[in-house]
Amino acid sequence: MFIEQGVKSENRFWKYIWGSVLLVLASLIGQMLFVAALFYETFTNGTSYPTNNEALMRFFEPNVTLFLILISFVFIMLGVVLVVRYLHNQTLLSVTTARSKVDWNRIFFSFSLWSAITIVSTLSFYFYEPNDFVINFKPIPFVILVIIGTLLIPVQTSSEEYIFRGYLMQGFANLSKNKWFPLLMTSLIFGGMHIFNPEVDKIGYIILVYYIGTGLFLGIITLMDEGLELALGFHAANNLVGALLVTSDWSAFQTHSIFKDVSDPSAGFDVILPVIIIYPILLFIFSKKYNWTNWKEKLTEKI
Q1: What is the CB-side half-sphere exposure of residue 212 using CA atoms within 13 A?
Q2: 20 DSSP 8-state letter
Q3: Alpha-carbon gap, residue 236 to 158, rounded angstroms
Q4: What percent of the chain has pLDDT over 70?
Q5: Range of the domain at 84
Q6: Are 282 and 217 in contact (CB under 8 A)?
Q7: How many domains does the chain have?
Q8: Which residues pair with 97 in a beta bridge?
Q9: Which residues does residue 133 pair with via DSSP β-bridges, in sequence order?
Q10: Rounded mean pLDDT, 273-292
Q11: Where does the sequence pass through the membrane (predicted)?
Q12: Alpha-carbon span 152 to 77, nearest angstrom
């Protein structure tokens, strides 16, 4: 079983604390390229150093900023591989799935399903409220965005899934010896990690319901399906297709997307719509396709 693969007597919880510190260090190393680019620009061209997050996100051309942000996740993913292998003496497969090999069909199905839903819902919003959007499409910057996004956004989303639904899920299982505590803790930490996103400033803390709910959804499909594959596909589709379709002045990613949302951000029903309606529908679809049973045991039982 997936979560049990990391539950070993030698996997003391302090190892996961130490491993998390190492992953933070890997992230900081990855961010050095962004910092170096900032210092180069300010010292060589005399540009004023950005004093807040909004100025930071607008300092470089959007594709350059996106690349500099995403490249740090290459170092994080490398950190995950090294921590799992050398600190915990596990294979990467053991924090990926309980199957004998990664099921790419599951990843592609989840990716395709959520991509289709995202595209249809975005176009529906555009045709229903056209005044909330402007066409932002510029062919050459968009092609560059597609290349950067296709290469690096899956690395970003995969590193997050390996950390939260893989590494930390198994880590908290070592601590609690049950399944509900890892599911709850990884969802809360995942949601809390988004508290510094610019959307929180614009919309308010209510949007954390969406982030925590998304973490809970990803944790549930991981436990029910005994692996990360569905979560990997969903998360990649969510970030990649979202970055290609819509940007706004207040979103975490400023991109050369097809549309730009110019509406005033507000906390409406759309914030909790995925959590209370769309995610349950997805759970139903996945459960029927992959014959999930024994929900209570898989989500709450002792290990």
Answers
A1: 12
A2: H
A3: 7
A4: 99
A5: 3-300
A6: yes
A7: 1
A8: 227
A9: 261
A10: 96
A11: 16-40, 66-87, 107-128, 140-159, 203-223, 267-286
A12: 11
**Token output for 101:** 């090999």
Tokens at 29, concatenated = 């190393």
| C-alpha to C-alpha distances, 121 to 137, 245, 273, nearest whole angstrom | 19, 11, 12
**pLDDT over 80 at 72, yes or no:** yes
Residue whose C-alpha is closest to residue 190's, from 249, 247, 231: 231
Residue 257 in this model has a pLDDT that exceeds 90: yes
**Would you say how long the chain is, in residues?**
303
Neighbours of 192 (CB within 10 A): 13
Between 198 and 255, whose confidence is greater?
Answer: 255
Pairing assessment for the beta strands 259-261 and 133-135 based on DSSP bridges: antiparallel
| Residue the block writes with tokens 């919003």 | 125
159, burial (CB in 10 Å: exposed 0-12, middle 13-18, buried 19+): buried
Please, what sign has the CA dihedral across residues 227, 230, 235, 237?
positive
Could you tell me the CA-to-CA distances from 5 to 121, 167, 182, 183, 292 in Å, in that order?
Answer: 38, 11, 14, 16, 20
- Nearest-angstrom CA–CA distance, 168 and 26: 16
